[in-house]
From TrEMBL:
It comes from the Bacteria. InterPro entries: Alpha-L-AF_C (IPR010720), ASD1_cat (IPR055235), CenC_carb-bd (IPR003305), Galactose-bd-like_sf (IPR008979), GH (IPR017853), Glyco_hydro_b (IPR013780), Glycosyl_Hydrolase_51 (IPR051563). Gene3D superfamilies: Galactose-binding domain-like, Glycosidases, Golgi alpha-mannosidase II. Residues 1-37 form the signal peptide. Belongs to the glycosyl hydrolase 51 family. This is non-reducing end alpha-L-arabinofuranosidase. The keyword Hydrolase applies. Keywords: Hydrolase, Signal. Residues 485-655 form the Alpha-L-arabinofuranosidase C-terminal domain.
Length: 666
């Protein structure tokens, strides 16, 4: 599904690559050392009388980046592609301002113009549509993938900004059609009046289901109209929010029960960030700047995404904060540090630009937390959220390859933030890999400057994850703490998930060091793949969780509140950790058996437990993948009736098992 990446992205795609031998180990069951592939007895001893580290309430979260069409054409529920005619070859060589638009009828013309009649300075392009006669003329939008996925009887909210040269007004008609032109809705007619821009709205109801829907907009002539921000939104969005999220994708994310939402990236955050602010707002190749993404959608900028496509900013900072709140996650925004990574590796030498970015970051905190009487708190309230969002953590920078230059600027950001907001945790990072010269130097500087939390990123093969379960055992308990902001094994097969699960037992065991962790990336549209693996895949009508999604969901919904010390027979193929749910008192025994044979295990629980235990298991062929049509790796819930202070249990081959043991009732 992947395609070749442009050279500027090659560095990120390369990360974590190991030798050819290590890569070969990713196949089938060879990820497990040969000696461990035979059936063996294991011992697992739990010490419930001792206390291990407390586990952060936000331990596992999600990392969202607008990659693989994760926003427009994905989580952002807008169905119209290129709704404001801002696509351009600078975003993608295949783009034109009429990408995704086709003529619908004869008897007129349509051209995209940028002149003094534009809707606003940030939304410069608009469509000049000329209908020569009463037969009318129009255009059709083909959406993403195969078109709009329409459900019979579902309602879709249409809107357009329009004006006309006809004093008496011009009839503008919107309707849904299939690729052959057959209608999928009754027509909706609005009367455009006057030569000034105005917003016109209405509702279309799908008369039948079709995954190839189109939106046709036409006008009767003679008339010349200006059209911009042509939009079609499903009425059903996540939690019914206007300008909201695609329901099925948002629900899958919510089902993870994420502790935090890290956004909006990723490489797109800091690339191009040393561009002068004096450049006009409409200039492309600007870095992701949060102020561009708030306010009325028709006034927001569009931007050339680092990943090679135009992003509309319809999904902006307000929506990110709102979504985090809706799913109960801690918001964790990432702002540019004026040192670029992801292959660019440049640092700004403009002190005024640096101070402007620092002030923007202070304004962001005010937007999130400030009172409605403050400048940016008032803007949040105007958008419908007078209450603060409760921002507590903020990351400066992402994967910088110039650690000295980065740290010089990071300290200026941190000092300015802490002077005004001492309750905000400011997060640094350690570059783009799990080790090496950049990593070592970054950690040296982070320790020297007393950084509170460091963001580590790495993408490695399954053998690496199996071999590095003890990575954080030797980290300094006096800090800095770690956020593992991006990690994944390099495929979406179940053997990758087994390796990730085995590694995560080590993350939990070291919960006093690793405070936050998130698999990455989160989303991928099957027709716009730039990075793989991903947690959730989708097209215009369907979405499905990968084997890694099911693994993450199992861990994220069974974290526990505190680690319970435990020991087990040492084996890369057999990993475990035990935590306690303080609310129920249950011990959550998490065991990964990443080998082709069952693991017969003797458990010494160290306390009396109820004989009936809840068991959740992921099990299957290590080569299995979840697809749109088949999801062979799904949780199976059963009960165990033989639990006791000491008992034997066989963990299936190629499995992830969570046992919930209840303390015995006295």
């Amino acid at each position: 599904m992947t395609r070749a990446l442009p050279s500027r992205r090659a560095e990120k795609r390369r990360r974590g690559r190991r030798s050819a031998l290590a890569l070969a180990l990713t196949g089938s069951l060879a990820i497990v050392p040969q000696a461990a592939a035979q059936s063996a007895d294991y011992d697992l001893t739990i010490e419930p009388g001792r206390e291990g580290p407390a586990i952060s309430d936000e331990m596992y979260g999600v990392f969202y980046e607008d990659i693989n069409r994760a926003a427009d054409g994905g989580l952002y529920a807008e169905l119209v592609q290129n709704r404001s005619f801002e696509y351009a070859p600078v975003d993608n060589p295949d783009y034109t301002p009429l990408t995704a638009w086709q003529p619908a009828q004869q008897g007129g013309s349509a051209e995209v113009v940028d002149d003094a009649g534009r809707l606003n300075e940030r939304n410069r392009n608009y469509l000049r549509l000329t209908a020569d006669g009463p037969q009318g003329y129009g255009i059709t939008n083909t959406g993403y993938n195969t078109g709009f996925a329409l459900r019979e009887g579902a309602k879709y909210d249409f809107s357009v900004w329009a004006r006309t040269d006809q004093p008496a007004g011009t009839a503008l008609t919107a309707m849904l059609r299939d690729p052959s032109g057959a209608p999928l809705s009754q027509p909706l007619e609005v009367n455009v009046r006057g030569d000034g821009w105005a917003k016109y709205t209405g509702t279309l109801t799908a008369t039948r289901a079709d995954t190839r829907g189109r939106l046709e907009v036409s006008a009767a002539g003679p008339a010349t109209l200006g059209l911009d921000m042509i939009s079609l939104f499903p009425r059903e969005t996540f939690k019914g929010r206007p300008n909201g999220m695609r329901a099925d994708l948002a629900e899958k994310i919510a089902a993870l029960n994420p502790g935090f939402l890290r956004f909006p990236g990723g490489c797109l955050v800091n690339t191009g960030s040393h561009r002068a602010y004096e450049a006009p707002d409409w200039e492309r190749e600007r870095s992701y700047q949060w102020k561009d993404t708030i306010g009325p959608v028709e006034q927001r900028a569009t931007n050339a995404n680092f990943w090679g496509y135009n992003q509309s900013y319809g999904l902006g900072y307000f929506e990110y904060f709102q979504f985090a709140e809706d799913v109960g996650a801690m918001p964790l925004p990432v702002v540019p540090a004026l040192v670029t990574g992801c292959g660019q590796n440049q640092a700004t030498d403009d002190p005024e630009l640096l101070q402007r970015h620092i002030q923007d970051t202070l304004d962001l905190i005010e937007f999130a937390n400030g009172p409605v009487t403050s400048t940016w708190g008032a803007k949040r309230a105007e958008m419908g959220h007078p209450e603060p969002f409760g921002l507590t953590h903020l990351a400066v920078g992402n994967e910088e390859n110039l650690p000295d230059e980065f740290m010089e600027r990071f300290v200026q950001f941190r000092d300015a933030i802490q002077a005004r907001h001492p309750d905000i945790t400011v997060i640094s990072n350690s570059g783009p890999d799990d080790s090496g010269q950049v990593f070592d130097r970054a950690w040296e500087l982070n320790r020297r400057h007393g950084v509170d939390m460091v963001d580590e990123h790495y993408y490695n093969d399954p053998a690496w994850f199996l071999a590095n379960n003890h990575r954080y055992d030797s980290y300094d308990r006096n800090g800095p703490e770690v956020i593992l902001g991006e990690f994944a094994s390099e495929d979406n097969k179940f053997h990758n998930s087994l390796a990730e699960a085995a590694y995560m037992t080590g993350l939990e065991r070291n919960a006093d060091v690793v405070r936050l962790a998130s698999y990455a990336p989160l989303l991928s549209n099957v027709d716009y793949v730039q990075w793989s693996p991903d947690m959730i895949w989708f097209d215009n009508a369907r979405s499905w969780g990968t084997t890694s999604y099911q693994t993450q969901k199992l861990f994220m919904n069974n974290v526990g509140d505190r680690v319970v010390p435990s020991t087990a027979t040492e084996d890369q193929a057999f990993r475990q950790v035990v935590t306690r749910d303080e609310r129920t008192g249950e011990l959550i025994v998490k065991v990964v058996n990443a080998q082709s044979s069952p693991a017969r295990t003797h458990l010494d629980v160290g306390t009396d437990v109820e004989p009936t235990a809840r068991v959740t298991t992921l099990q299957g062929d290590p080569e299995a993948e979840n697809t749109a049509t088949e999801q062979p790796i799904r949780p199976v819930e059963t009960t165990l009736d033989s639990a006791a202070r000491e008992f034997d249990h066989t963990f299936p081959a190629n499995s992830i098992t969570f046992l919930r043991l209840r303390p015995a009732q006295s």
